[in-house]
Amino acid sequence: MSRFPILIIGLLLVELRALAPVTAVYGNSDGLDLRSQLPQVAAIELDGFPIVVTHGDQFGSPNPAKLHEAFPDAEIIIFGHSRRPLLELVDKTVTVMNPGGAGAPRFGIGSSVGILELEPGIPPRGRIVPLGH
């Protein structure tokens, strides 16, 4: 694999971190360079919400039930892998989001991003935003 994609991702992370804190994980297509810099799973807390971020490929075809079972203490689970946008409530307390892919459309799936708004004591508000190409 060429180092060029790794350099681009590394530069994007640097630029994003200059704007705000960033939580990133590696995915199944990422090389050893990126895997050595990022975790497979990241757990953080924002505004009192325990959040897990994972690419999800370690679950085969990740879905909300599998992810909730794997991370029972998380109130919000954000994953990728399938590139299929998804926003789902599991058991009234857990929000599971796949924001889709922000890059060029793949697998016949358009590009999108996910936005979650968090405020302490209020359930998360989320939406998937399609991107035009």
List the helices and strands and how they pair.
Elements: H1 3-19, H2 32-35, E1 41-46, E2 49-54, H3 64-70, E3 76-78, E4 86-90, E5 94-98, E6 112-119, E7 122-130
Parallel strand pairs: 2-3, 3-5
Antiparallel strand pairs: 1-2, 4-5, 6-7
Tell me what the structure shows.
The protein has 133 residues and is an alpha/beta fold. It folds into two domains: 39 residues, no CATH class; 88 residues, Purple Acid Phosphatase, chain A, domain 2. Helix content is 21%, strand content 32%. The chain contains three helices and seven strands. It has a five-stranded mixed β-sheet with strand order 1-2-3-5-4, with helices on one face. A hairpin with a 3-residue loop joins strand 4 and strand 5. The model has no long low-confidence stretch (mean pLDDT 84).
Count of individual helical segments? 3
Overall residue-averaged pLDDT value = 84
What proportion of the residues is helical, as a percent range? 10-25%
The CATH superfamily label of the largest domain reads Metallo-dependent phosphatases
Count of β-strands:
7
Q: Which oligomeric form is depicted?
A: single chain
Strand content of the residues, in percent?
Answer: 25-35%
Q: Structural class of the helices, strands and pairings? A: alpha/beta
Largest sheet: 5 strands, mixed
Rg on CA atoms, Å = 15 Å
CATH topology of the largest domain: Purple Acid Phosphatase, chain A, domain 2
Cα distance, first to last residue?
Answer: 27 Å
Shape: globular
Main sheet strand line-up:
1-2-3-5-4
- Give the ordered list of helices and strands: HHEEHEEEEE
Based on the structure given, which CATH architecture of the largest domain is correct? Answer: 4-Layer Sandwich
Q: Report low-confidence residues grouped into runs of 5 or more.
A: none
